[in-house]
Design goal:
The complex is a heterodimer of chains A (146) and B (137). Chain A is mainly alpha-helical and 146 residues long. Helix content of chain A is 72%, strand content 2%. Chain A starts with a helix and ends with a strand. Chain B is an all-alpha fold and 137 residues long. Chain B has one domain (2-128). Chain B is built from 6 helices and 1 strand, in the order H-H-H-H-H-H-E. The longest helix of chain B has 26 residues, at 74-99. Classes of the chains: A mainly alpha (146), B mainly alpha (137). At the A-B interface, helix 4, helix 5 and strand 1 of A face helix 1, helix 4, helix 5 and strand 1 of B. Strand 1 (140-142) of chain A pairs antiparallel with strand 1 of chain B.
């Protein structure tokens, strides 16, 4: 593991995930979220829960970066973006399940899915571009689905 | 391709049964504490296909990630992938906790259940899916 580059990639991923989350979910989707007021905490309460939001992004960024670093074809923005896209789809699945069990609107569902896919694809590209594994640790898998 | 499909089907069946056991039985009373956050049983039944599609998307993407970057590592690599994905998802769950009035114990129990779920899914996919060949430079 190249820890120096890992740390830089982690910080970059954390900053991007946090800023994107703020712009997409809290700003662009603000009015859409408020269409279902029972679903969200009152605006006055949100400040006292900010620490959980920051901790959540920290954990998410750290383990996503670790996942990218462990991903075999890592070391390029394209490979990172592809991994990020698939990770975004893994996290889009629970949004579909949430739509079935929580009173979300279709607009909120579409916004969450698009947000997850864009957020992790770009984050994957950032991590892939920054993190380069030591060449001795790269394992090539000659892939052929069977 | 055959092993990909078998891994997908096996993991999907487990995820479906585990999801029902965890959310439908074990955590039923915890969900009942916050009825305003959830749809009625009738509504949920009419939207059940979204649960099936959502779970299929999770499993399909998981097997794709495993096949494209972790295959060859076997069960251990599958478990590692499941753990990394799920711990990152716990971060996402904390973000939801910050903005939605979800009870803290639902986050804790849900996260523990999801870690167990993804470890088993990873072990199943790692045990079933095998790449054509593995070489090291």
């Amino acid at each position: 593991m190249n820890w120096n580059k890992f740390f830089v990639a982690f910080i970059a991923a954390f900053v991007f995930l946090f800023v994107f989350g703020f712009l997409w979910y809290a700003t662009l989707m603000h009015d859409t979220h408020r269409e279902v007021p029972t679903l969200l905490r009152p605006e006055a309460d949100l400040k006292s829960y900010f620490g959980w939001l920051a901790l959540g992004h920290f954990v998410m960024a750290f383990f996503f970066t670790l996942l990218c670093a462990r991903y075999v074809p890592s070391g390029r923005a394209g490979a990172g973006a592809m991994l990020g896209l698939l990770v975004g789809l893994v996290y889009a699945g629970p949004h579909l399940i949430s739509f079935a069990v929580q009173p979300l609107t279709l607009k909120i569902l579409c916004g969450w899915i698009a947000g997850a896919v864009i957020q992790f694809t770009v984050a994957g590209a950032i991590v892939g571009a920054i993190y380069k594994p030591p060449t001795g640790q790269i394992m090539y898998v000659k892939e052929r689905l069977r | 391709m055959r092993r990909f499909i078998i891994a997908f089907i096996a993991a999907y069946i487990f995820l479906f049964v585990w999801g029902w056991l965890l959310n439908g039985i074990l955590l039923k009373d915890v969900y009942a504490e916050t009825p305003n956050l959830w749809r009625s049983q009738t509504e949920m039944a009419s939207l059940f296909h979204w649960i099936i599609i959502g779970q299929a998307l999770v499993v399909f993407s998981f097997v794709m990630i495993y096949a494209s970057g972790f295959a060859g590592g076997g069960i251990i690599a599958g478990i590692r992938l499941g753990l990394l994905l799920e711990i990152a998802a716990i971060g996402m769950r904390l973000g939801f906790y910050a903005v939605q009035p979800i009870p803290g114990k639902l986050i804790v129990y849900g996260s523990i259940g999801a870690v167990i779920e993804m470890v088993i899914v990873g072990a199943m996919v790692g045990g079933i899916y095998k790449p054509a060949s593995v070489r090291q430079p």
